[in-house]
Design goal:
Strand content: over 45%
Radius of gyration: 21 Å
Strand order of the largest sheet: 3-4-5-8-7-6
Number of domains: 2
Order of helices and strands: EEEEEEEEEEEEEEEH
CATH topology of the largest domain: Thrombin, subunit H
Mean pLDDT: 78
Number of strands: 15
Distance between the termini: 36 Å
CATH architecture of the largest domain: Beta Barrel
Largest sheet: 6 strands, antiparallel, barrel
Structural class: mainly beta
Low-confidence stretches: 4-8
Number of helices: 1
CATH superfamily of the largest domain: predicted glycosyltransferase like domains
């Protein structure tokens, strides 16, 4: 794969014949990305070998390409034509770099995540303890994890289940593991807690990645209009 200019994670990439790409479509949790091999590339258009599974003409998709020791790159596109032995795809805009481990994060203030935790058992004579809060404000989300603020502390390595909903999406219930819990810089009472999703399947990852990219594009358009 060749590339042109690079700026803040953006590239003008030119896919070469034989390159492998993933094609993400739809918002269904069960839907998996389609793996395809690039046949040829011209002027922002890509021909991939084969019929590309369940993709249909007119489908909006997200193209993903992984560069070893660099990261993943994504770009929005659409299926223009399907032939018996190839599929014609157009894409627009530059390729956005998505780090292989941390992924791109997007702020989501106003949303909440529920992280139910087991309450410690109490003896018959023990005084009642206030309930532990299990709903927290989300700071940002990525296709690899979520970050939220909490007055409760979490142990690094602690496993939990995150329940949250993104605008226009179904509710997610994803197992996760705490990777960081640190006091907020502007408060001694609150902590920032970061968790990574455990064994995230390709269907969920594809859906989260697509939502984040579309949300980024929408916010950029709003900024330009403002």
């Amino acid at each position: 794969m060749k590339d042109g200019k690079r700026d803040r994670g953006l590239r003008n990439l030119q896919l070469e014949g034989g390159s492998r790409v993933l094609l993400h479509r739809g918002r269904e949790v069960e839907e998996r990305p389609v793996a395809a091999t690039v046949d040829r590339f011209e002027n922002g258009c890509v021909w991939v070998k084969g019929s590309s599974g369940s993709l249909e003409e007119g489908d909006a998709i997200l193209l993903e390409y992984k560069i070893e020791d660099d990261g993943r790159y994504i770009a929005q596109g659409a299926v223009e034509e399907r032939l018996p032995d190839s599929t014609f795809i157009s894409y627009h805009g530059e390729w956005q770099r998505v780090q292989d481990r941390s992924f791109v994060r997007i702020s989501t203030h106003g949303l909440e995540v529920r992280v139910p935790r087991e309450r410690p058992g109490e003896g018959d004579d023990a005084p009642p303890r206030p309930p532990t809060r299990d709903s927290f404000e989300v700071l940002d989300v990525s296709a690899g994890g979520i970050r939220f603020e909490s007055r409760d502390t979490f142990e690094v390595g602690e496993e939990c289940v995150c329940h949250f909903e993104l605008p226009g999406q179904s509710c997610y219930v994803l197992p996760a593991r705490v990777v960081r819990c640190a006091p907020k810089a502007d408060s001694r009472l609150w902590h920032e807690v970061a968790v990574e999703f455990i064994e995230l399947d390709e269907g969920h990852r594809s859906e989260l990645l697509r939502w984040i990219y579309q949300e980024q594009a929408k916010r950029h358009r709003n900024i330009r209009r403002g």
